[in-house]
Design a protein that fits this description.
With about 350 residues, this protein is α+β, with helices and mostly antiparallel strands. It has helices spanning about 30-40, 95-105, 120-125, 195-205, 210-225, 245-255, 255-260, 280-285, 315-335, and strands at about 5-10, 20-25, 45-50, 55, 65-70, 75-80, 85-90, 130, 135, 140-145, 150-155, 175-185, 230-235, 240-245, 270, 275, 300, 305-310, 345. The longest helix is centred in the C-terminal third of the chain and has 19 residues, at about 315-335. The structure holds uridine-diphosphate-2(N-acetylglucosaminyl) butyric acid.
Length: about 350
């Protein structure tokens, strides 16, 4: 087991900010987890799990503990019946590679989630979602190493506590995800409700197979999201707000002039009747004019202001300051308290 010391979070996360992690251990297989936890216990240090680091903000002060870098590999496909294939993947596998392998086999279910950075093990934590599809819709079960009980267990879909960008894994860090099991379908129908895709169907000759949908989504994402190779970013920095229908109506009255010019504020119905999700990007762009708005080292991306980008010299404090400033502006204009989608790492 290799242990590295004082590894900067700027090299472990895609936002590329943050001070040193005291220790970092690569977890290549489940058997090393108990060793890593024993190492932490002996030193009375906390531990945390990191996947691709594409959805976290690490503090400038770093982390006085042990980072378990999840690397457990493997993606296997097993036919369950005429129409269903089970996919079991290691938590350290690349999510986008899993999507690529699935669509190459013409399997339906996760094609809309193409192009999302990060690892398989991170997918259930925040229940990743895009273009009208959430990860949980194909999940069968999650295998974890329970650091409190000191054993592996399996958690079925219905006890994962999923909702919009939410699961129990966010609140129970002792559940270390080691494997994820999905059910994909040999027959399926394209899910093209989302506005960008609905527009595409008119122009593209065919979005009828999972692989064509995945490649259409990859090209939409390439236009909207900054390239990780050249930008420090963690994708959408905030969650899209979920508000009551009444609050939505108030917004449409308050911003009648803006709506007359730019069109209605889109809304997506939520599972709870009477709640709607609205794109924060609309508020940031059309109401507040914040595309490209920044504070020197961090700014809201010009093509999609929900995405925050940090430059080479940025510190976590620049990112925090901008995020707080933006949240205040949104509150002042709309009365909505926005939440971060990106997770903050505590110092210890
Ligand atoms: N909009 C503007 N101005 C802009 C950009 C967008 O007004 O400059 C408005 C438009 O009305 C547009 C709407 O905002 O229709 C929605 O924007 P978009 O479709 O780009 O996506 P989003 O709702 O902002 C969500 C997810 C993304 C996911 C995309 C695509 C969240 C927090 N984000 O963003 O997920 O990829 O939809 O489905 O729900 C992530 O969570 O990290 C993430 C990248």
């Amino acid at each position: 087991m290799t242990v590295r010391e004082a590894v900067p979070f700027s090299s472990l996360t895609t936002l590329r900010v943050g001070g040193p992690a005291r220790y970092v251990m690569e977890i290549e297989d489940v058997a090393t987890i108990p060793e890593a936890l024993a190492f932490a216990r002996e030193r009375s240090l906390p531990f945390m799990v990191l996947g691709g680091g594409s959805n976290v903000l690490a503090p400038d002060a770093g982390y006085e503990g042990i980072v378990l870098r999840m690397r457990i590999p493997g993606i296997t496909f097993t036919k369950l019946d005429e129409d269903t294939v089970e996919v079991v993947a290691g938590a350290g596998a690349s999510w986008d590679e899993l999507v690529s392998e699935a669509v190459a086999q013409n399997l339906w279910g996760i094609e809309n989630l193409a192009g999302i950075p990060g690892t398989v093990g991170a997918a259930p934590v925040q229940n990743i979602g895009a273009y009208g599809v959430e990860f949980e819709s194909t999940l069968s079960e999650v295998t974890v190493y329970d650091a409190c009980a000191g054993e592996r267990t399996t958690i079925a879909h219905d006890t994962c506590g999923f909702s919009y960008r939410e699961s129990r894994f966010k609140h129970e860090p002792h559940l270390i995800i080691t494997n994820v099991s999905l059910r994909l379908k040999k027959r399926g129908a394209p899910q093209l409700r989302y506005s960008d895709l609905a527009g595409l169907t008119e122009t593209e000759e065919s979005l009828e197979t999972p692989s064509r949908i995945a490649s259409a989504i990859r090209s939409i994402r390439a236009r909207k999201f900054p390239d990780l190779a050249t930008h420090g970013t963690a994708g959408s920095f905030f969650k899209n707000p979920v508000i009551a229908e009444g609050a939505y109506r108030e917004l449409t009255e308050r911003f009648a002039d803006i709506i007359a010019e730019h069109g209605a504020i889109p809304r997506y119905p939520m599972q709870r009747v009477g709640d709607v999700k609205i794109p924060l990007a609309y508020i940031l762009d059309k109401v507040l004019g914040l595309r490209g708005y920044g504070n020197g080292h961090a700014r809201l991306f010009e093509n999609q202001p929900l995405v925050l980008v940090a430059d080479r010299d940025a510190h976590a404090s620049d990112v925090d300051a901008l995020a707080n400033d933006v949240a205040q502006k949104v509150f002042d204009a709309t009365g909505i308290t926005i939440e971060r989608e990106v997770r903050s790492i505590p110092i210890e």
